[in-house]
Design a protein that fits this description.
The protein is mostly helical and 155 residues long. It has one domain: Helix Hairpins, CATH 1.10.287. It contains two helices and no strands. It has helices spanning 12-73, 76-139. The chain starts with 11 loop residues before the first helix and ends in a 16-residue tail after the last helix.
Length: 155
């Protein structure tokens, strides 16, 4: 079979090793492509989650500011209403933060799983590459037996 350049080694054992390497590399490349695409999507979603959590936090901070203002005003009704807004905003922030953290953990677990898949396919691809290199090195005659090229003392 032809190598990546369309050439054959004219050695069935080397061509078989090249085929094995090509297949292992294609599997690795496929997992890497999927991993990169899924990581891009996960990163975008995590950015959305952070934005959602920050908005909930800002609403809570704003409610606390209104409570401070109501306390300065001194009206019991305004203070009570502002306290309810703070409590509601705090509860909303807690729910949002819990949901955001849970989803972020899911994304991180998925990323680690995909990384594991990449690593599982990396070793066979590298081992196949080394096997091809070793086979080609065994085919090459030792340097002392190679003909001298022009300029290496032969002429």
């Amino acid at each position: 079979m032809a190598n990546d350049d369309g050439q054959r080694a004219d050695r069935p054992e080397v061509d078989a090793l090249r085929d094995k390497h090509r297949q292992a590399r294609e599997e690795l490349d496929g997992v890497i492509v999927v991993t990169e695409a899924e990581n891009t999507i996960a990163s975008a979603r995590q950015t959305e989650l952070v934005t959602t959590q920050q908005a909930a936090w800002r609403r809570w901070v704003a409610a606390k500011g209104l409570l401070t203002k109501a306390r300065k005003d001194g009206s019991a009704d305004k203070i009570a209403a502002a306290r309810r807004r703070v409590d509601a905003a705090s509860a909303e922030f807690d729910r949002t933060a819990d949901a955001v953290v849970a989803e972020m953990q899911q994304h991180n677990r998925a990323r680690l799983e995909r990384l594991g898949q990449v690593l599982d396919r990396r070793s066979p691809a590298w081992e196949a590459d080394c096997a091809v290199t070793d086979a080609l090195a065994r085919l090459r005659p030792p340097r002392s037996q190679q003909p001298l090229s022009p300029g290496e003392g032969g002429q």
